[in-house]
Amino acid sequence: MAMDTTRRFFIKTGVAAPILYKLAGPKPVLKAAGPNDTIGLGFIGVGIRGSEHVTTFSKIPGVRAIIAADCYDGHLAWAKEATEDKIETTKDYQAVLERKDVDAVVISTPDHWHTRMVLDSLAAGKHVFVEKPMTYTIAEGKQIIEAVKKSGKLLMVGSQMKTSTLIAKAREVAKSGVLGKLNMARLGDYRNSPEGAWVYPIPADASEKTIDWNRWQGPAPKRAFDPKIVFRWRCWWEYSGGVATDLWVHNLTTIHEILDIKAPPKSVVAQGGIFRFPDGRTCPDLLVGVMEYPDFILEITANLGSTRRATETMVAGSEASLSLTRKGVLVTFEPTPSPIAFYGLNGWPKALREQYLESMGVVGGRRPPAPPTKPPQEIPVEQGLSHNEWFIKALRENLPSPESAEEGHNAATAAHMGNLSYRKGKKVRYDAGAFKAVEV
Description:
Elements: H1 3-13, E1 39-44, H2 48-58, E2 63-69, H3 73-82, E3 88-90, H4 93-97, E4 104-107, H5 114-123, E5 127-131, H6 139-151, E6 155-158, H7 165-176, E7 182-190, H8 213-217, H9 227-231, H10 242-258, E8 267-273, E9 286-292, E10 297-303, E11 312-317, E12 320-324, E13 328-333, H11 350-359, E14 377-380, H12 387-397, H13 405-424, E15 428-431, E16 436-439
Parallel strand pairs: 1-2, 1-4, 2-3, 4-5, 5-6, 7-10
Antiparallel strand pairs: 7-11, 8-9, 8-15, 9-10, 11-12, 12-13, 13-14, 15-16
């Protein structure tokens, strides 16, 4: 990378206001709520994430929480309390879809329900906000993509960082060329607490009287009632993809946005296990993967048993690396390499060594001072719209999805490939034509 290119980049972007998320792709056919129209929302699942969505969406002007569905009485009681009894509640999600005053639904259920509920919502003429991961299996991605196109409705996946001004700025830096030739990226999430490993408390009233167990299980294999599963479902394969689809997928969505990646990785190999929480769970509490993309290799880790390594998002290039901080985007430049190969002279006869050094302009055989390295540059970023606000903005302004079904499929598929590699003990590659991963 020429020095003048680097200088022009930082003159242009170093102190500029962060760019807004740039939407692209075909626009859906929306019912286009006007700027003064109320958008009615229905919520399917109001547990940990769903309750946050009820609170967050309700604070957006012109948005009304109409009805909430959940299989646990306590969640429905919370929804009443949180909305001062203004929201209706039900245990049947189909009742949400039947409401004519519901324009869009927010799906925050266990993973194994996502696809069925998304398809039913689109068929009912509703716009959809679905929590990550979009799918429970790779094949379901094709079903949802086709259903969205057929419906003409807007579907947005809930990976919050994707639409942030921080990621928009990181994308701008990556596209500028200041990093040089990209070669790798590293993503990591590190935790070490029961709560971080989804060992959530069980309500004292949790029973088959307060939980519709059969409805909650839905398409999953039938088993005896166990309240731990209802409140800690991310720990079992029957309902979740574990750390890959709960943690990896956030980071994968982010790196896909930063580097403008339009497809799942070509291949994945992953290893892990249950090292910290042998509590009956079947999903690993440590999973490390290596993913092959056309132009770089990605290392990705989710560790629920240690915080000795910092959570990170890093992209490395031949000239510099990019990483995210609390304040903005940090660009760290590579040291300027010396053109003189001193180490490679070991074992050379004195005359040949001196001849080489003289040809390189070295006087007296002494190593010259190392060329100065450019200091790191941190580009501050101001906060913009939240992911939830982008969903409402897209509905009101007839914009394309800020996180589309295709994007949701690409990130979820990378996570599913990691799980498949771990469970099969083999490297897997992606077959784009068949929408599936195959063992190598």
